[in-house]
Amino acid sequence: MKMSSDGLKEALEKLKDSGVRMTPQRHAILAYLFKSKSHPTADEIYRALEKDFPNMSVATVYNNLKVFLEVGLIEELLFGDDSSRFEVKHEEHYHVVCRKCGHIEDFISPCLSDMESLAEKEKGFIIDGHRVEFYGICSKCQQEAKLD
């Protein structure tokens, strides 16, 4: 799915085709996910939208995220910080995670997809996915460490 306004339109159509009724809050949550580059938690989404939707609760955000997951529009990511993070499903990619500040960035590498094919061949599995994360210290935290 494209990460653009066209991608958002496609996602809205997919929800409609799945029989999901569109509410202003649901639209706002989905639009926020499409424009976000930060892999937000449900609480972060809530805080970002609460001024525009003062009657919306954190539970509303969680419930809508569950709907988006069930329809296959988003992915839930767990990085060991006990917080589920969310992103719109798009091309196969991986994540680079800062151990110090928790910053997450997407990373694309075609050679890791080759490893999936190799695992299928060598082990006789039908591989339907994989997950890879890289951990380290981001450039911002490296700069801050030099200043200390």
CATH homologous superfamily (4th level) name of the largest domain: Winged helix-like DNA-binding domain superfamily/Winged helix DNA-binding domain
How much of the polypeptide forms β-strand, as a percent range?
A: 15-25%
Secondary-structure element sequence?
HHHHEEEEHEH
Q: What's the alpha carbon Rg, rounded to whole Å?
A: 18 Å
Distance between the termini: 43 Å
Report the helical percentage.
40-55%
> How confident is the prediction overall: mean pLDDT?
87
Helices, by number, come to: 6
Show unreliable segments.
Answer: none
Whole-number tally of structural domains: 2
Question: What is the CATH C-level name of the largest domain?
Answer: Mainly Alpha
CATH architecture of the largest domain: Orthogonal Bundle
CATH topology of the largest domain: Arc Repressor Mutant, subunit A
Inertia-based shape: flat
Structural class: alpha+beta
Query: Major beta sheet, specifics?
Result: 3 strands, mixed
Tally the beta strands.
5
Provide the spatial order of strands within the biggest beta sheet. Answer: 4-3-5
Family: Belongs to the Fur family.
Pfam families: FUR (PF01475)
Cofactor: Zn(2+); Mn(2+); Fe(2+)
Binding site for Zn(2+): 98, 101, 138, 141
Compact overview of the structure:
The chain is an alpha+beta fold. Helix content is 47%, strand content 16%. The model has no long low-confidence stretch (mean pLDDT 87).
